[in-house]
């Protein structure tokens, strides 16, 4: 499926600084970027690979207090949705070096606290069936409430509060899966099915030796979702990380099937 | 029912200091202290009333680095267990001044985070039926695991971790009940049914204009439980609060039916 | 000094509910309310005493999804500023029952974590001199930044972040003072010297057997400040506590010397 | 300098499980392992590279409820201590992909909360001078108190509590450095100068395009310290991570100069 991405944003900073942008669609398995254009004006930028080698990120040196940016792209998404239930967990002793960090807790995902819950609720299931049951549990038990969380909300608060937005759903997904000794990571993505349109966050779980998308919000599907970046949680995949307080003046994210 | 209490403890402090002891059985409705003797040796003590006027507490000026204490008492417990399900919640606008603080969050009980969960899970129930359902939920979903928590564990961790000891059960009970706009407080108590024998913590909920005991661990019953003190959470009812680090050298708590 | 208070607010709720208002100036030592008028429209209200018997609070049953309120008052503030440095701490063993809870940590004030810092930094000072040094430390080390905190910010975050608004200054003040075994409580107040005008939060410390105001922001003075309510931290003195999410449509707080 | 490492440990698990061992000295720049022997008995193990390619880790499938392990090694440490003050920070826009994650917060290091403090206290310094000043600040303001923290203690608590052990010192070091936009990571290490002998944790900071050791406890020096592993914080470098509760039966770590 081909999707078109159209992002525009304008930010004000308290002073000139170097910002870190994570908004370009990744060139990776399952998707081909057929066209793209990042516009940040006439300022110096440096591109580096994203975490775990997925996608790329941009250091942009903003010489003023304000920046207008846009990103337009077309992406052919060729990955197919998989039936999680048919996938197997890899025994932990075969988890390779580059995947092992995704077994562990992170800034917002205190997975070390969830072992007993996950054992009690999902202990009788294995591998992909366990992950699928967790996904269903989250979808059934959380309510999607815009504004109910902020950038500081961690998964302990989400689990108690039973509401959140996509980042919170993905945090809880990653947390439960990690607590069951299955690797899980956070993914920033573009999808045409997010309402209202915005940057989206989902999880990827590592089953049968590969990463597979899981969207606990139920909003988007692997065959129409373009990955931007991966990381251990929301902080690692923030679309904009600045060194000084940033005020959003304008932001729009449109993703459409074409 | 008459119970006999026999407490002995020996603590070492990093330096002389004034400690706060909350170990005497309260003289309050539902129980009569027929005999008691607190021994702290020949040091100055001052008694003050406990929080909300329940029981009494002792400031003890320990002039050395070590203290041996004992407390022996007999208490006639005359209160009867009540069927929570038959009790009604008082409409919040009729909650009096002395009860209102027990609607609010505290150090270990972030009840402000649990509103959505409580509404989803128990929203169709009222008053005592709601409280009884919460008690059953906690008993069914938590596992009693000595050593699984410490003095720093808060209710967000308990709710995710699904295990704990009596303080954690009582914290979650107070938290859920407060999140449903029903007053709840923490109670330190003696009970002959605690295994292994120790200080016990339970909750009290305010229904039909009075406080009623709820023990989410299911271990003890209102008609054999002697209240020591009440407060907003575990910190308020600690049996020993010292100004400097304290090391337990010996401690035993025996409570028996006589 | 006589001050005039003029509050107006309009809130929208997700559904009818009973709210808890803490906006009336207290009738207490140091201030006389010479005129006041609370307007909440034609809805049922119940007044109860505030925590520790200071001031009063209002349960208001809002039958609609929206409420407009106003509060107008004139208060003669007769209390005099005191020189903290001249006051003595009361030995802890003489701290009475009604003051003892203010030695302990609370929802946002984890004073149990600050013992070593307070001992190192202020351990050589006593009583009011210690409190005054803490006040100066906070004023010197924190920056007043509107918007830098929210209702969820706790004192561990404030202490690390070194910025905040009045609630955060007062939280840190209460926390440090409690960590030094001196009682401290949170106070909601009106003051003509707050810029921009708003509800204000300060601390009260218990020295020489009485409560004394301390404003770590340095903005307001005891002789022009009218107390509304006291409690263990910001949650206990919130001007509006509703059972359902509340959206502010309008709010103004004007306090002037007259 | 040549050091000899001699580790012995015995652990009991609640059931057979696969454990993750991070105890072998790394083969990396600055140190040569001239002899080593890991003994875990006759059980299957898999070695994988450590995080960021530093050192190696062992998945060990423990078929029983108990395991005795030993590790003996000799390491020639050839790295020289550097004068931090002479090193420069790399401008953030030149920070490469593999280093960028070490700019960000992690499970125990909420560096996103420390920006204002770091700017106020160290904002006038640059690069290595800034890092050196932070190191001195931590050494001067923290007290090394065995038992004052546990595996759950985060840097907000350490910063308030002003005490801890090596992990807490290193957490605070990493946190402050990251808050100043300089990469920092956690390092597990062996050193002959730790008293009492134990696994040690220090920080590495990325200056002038390379990683440099910083030990805020002041206990150990780069020319006698053997790196085991690196990561974002203590969780990533734990010497033993088991899937079920583990009880230490015996543990000794001896490191000597030879």
UniProtKB/TrEMBL annotation, chains A, B, C, D:
The lineage of its organism: Bacteria, Pseudomonadati, Pseudomonadota, Alphaproteobacteria, Rhodobacterales. It comes from the Bacteria. It holds the Pfam family Transglut_core. Coiled coil: none annotated. Residues 158-218 form the Transglutaminase-like domain. This is Transglutaminase family protein. InterPro entries: Papain-like_cys_pep_sf, Transglutaminase-like. PANTHER family: BLL5557 PROTEIN (PTHR33490:SF12), BLR5614 PROTEIN-RELATED (PTHR33490).
